Amino acid sequence: MWAEPLLVILNRDAIDCDEVRDVVLHEWIHLQQARTHNTWDAVQAAYGGQQQAEIVADCGARLLGSELTPYLDEAGRGCTAAELDHARALTQRQAS
Ligand SMILES: [Zn+2]
To answer: Which of 54, 76, 79, 96 could serve as a FRET partner for 61 with CA atoms 20 to 30 Å apart?
Structure first.
C-alpha cells in the first residue's frame, strides 16, 4: 500500500507471509521514486502514468531479487531496457 508523502504501510491481512520481502522491495522502489520526484502525482507524471510507475517498481524489485512482479505479469512482458535503466538508477539512488 502507498501512502503519501514518503510512507508505506503494509497490511498484514492483505499480504501472505511469504510475499512480505517481495512487497517491501517493490514499495522501497516507490519510496525511491517519491524521494526523486517528491510526490506520487509527480512520480506518475515522470513515468507517464501510474501503470508505468508500477512497472518500473516491479523492474526495480526484480533487480533486487524479487520474483513477485504483478504489474509485469499483468502486462504480459518483461522490463524494457529503458525501464531497467530507470529502475537501476532508483536502486543506486543516494540518500539526500
Ligand atoms: Zn506499486
So the answer is: 96
Distance in Å, CA 82 to ligand 1 centroid: 18
| First-last CA distance in the chain | 24
Domain that holds residue 57: 2-91
| Per-residue confidence (pLDDT) for residue 68, from 0 to 100 | 95
3-state secondary structure at position 5: coil
| Distance between Cα 71 and ligand 1 center (Å) | 8
Domain assignment of residue 56, yes or no: yes
Taking the centre of ligand 1 as the mean of its atom positions, its distance from the CA of residue 59, in whole angstroms, is 11
pTM of the predicted structure, to 2 decimals = 0.88
